[in-house]
Every structure is written in C-alpha cells, then in structure tokens.
C-alpha cells in the first residue's frame, strides 16, 4: 500500500477549506490562543456593533453588548462546532440572544427581525444577507461627505471614543458628535433607499 502524500490528506484539505475566521475560532477553542482571539475580536466587533445598532440600540450600549458577546465567545469556545455552524453565524446568534435579553430587561418590545431568527440557526441565506448588508453599508459610507465618513469610520470601524477622535484630530467634541450624527442620518437614508431598490 502506498503512503498518501500530505496533499491527499482529507484533514489537511478540510483545514484549507475553512475560512480565516473559522481557523481563528478553532485556535481559540483548542489552544486558548489570545492572538487568534484578538484577530476575531478585531474582525467581528465593528460588524456586531453595526448589527446591534440597526435594531435601535445606542452606541454605548451596543459596545457593552459587543464586549459581552466576545467574552461569551471566549468562555464558550468549546461549544463551537464548524460542522454545525459557520463561525459568523454562531457569533451572530450569541449576539442576537444577548440583545434580546437586554431589550427584555428594559421592558422594550423586541424588534420583529430578532424574534423571527431567535430559534433558528443562521443558514447560508441569512449569512448571504448579512454579507450583502455589509456591502451596502460600505457603499453607503462611501457616499458620505469626506468629513462625515472620516468620523463614522473612526467611531464605528476604528472603535474610537469621541474623546480619542478629539485627541487624534484636534476637532472640538461638538463638531465630532455633529458630524457623526449627520453621517448616521445620511447612512440610514442611503440604506433605506438601497433596501427599497433591492
């Protein structure tokens, strides 16, 4: 019997087929790899924050939920099974459940889109939807005025506080807040238009 070459090793092939995010997640699960966790955090935190804010949660509270979700990802990493769910689907499910808990604690009505998905595992269709949302968001951000875009990117993609943006740019806090507010309003309109078009 001839010995198999490494390239025909099914385990190695399966590993190559996994996404970068899944590889990070497996490193966290199997070896408690902090560098991989930091990479996961950098990748998912801004996306989760946007996802959470879309259902009407404020920026500060969304940040707290994101921190909580990523802590849960670290603590419950042993439960992740790439055969059962994509890492993005698994993390978004944790985020959705956490968000519902927070909304219920505050006795607010749970938005319909959170209810509908609560019991189901995100499928390929949902994940495609999220990817499309991310693309739309990128396009919408690209249409903002440069000064508004810069503030939105620093606050949401760069995860900077208003104070940190002030230190970086030297702009007054009022200007920063106003540009972020106007940018977010414009983004909402852009995304609404895109959704009604598509």
TrEMBL record:
> GO terms for molecular function, please?
DNA binding; sigma factor activity
InterPro entries xrefs: RNA_pol_sigma-70-like (IPR039425), RNA_pol_sigma-70_dom (IPR014284), RNA_pol_sigma70_r2 (IPR007627), RNA_pol_sigma70_r4 (IPR007630), RNA_pol_sigma_r2 (IPR013325), RNA_pol_sigma_r3/r4-like (IPR013324), WH-like_DNA-bd_sf (IPR036388)
Pfam families per UniProt: Sigma70_r2, Sigma70_r4
Reading the lineage from the top rank, the first entry is Bacteria
Q: Alphabetically list the UniProt keywords.
A: DNA-binding, Sigma factor, Transcription, Transcription regulation
**Similarity annotation:** Belongs to the sigma-70 factor family. ECF subfamily.
According to UniProt, the name of this protein is RNA polymerase sigma-70 factor, ECF subfamily
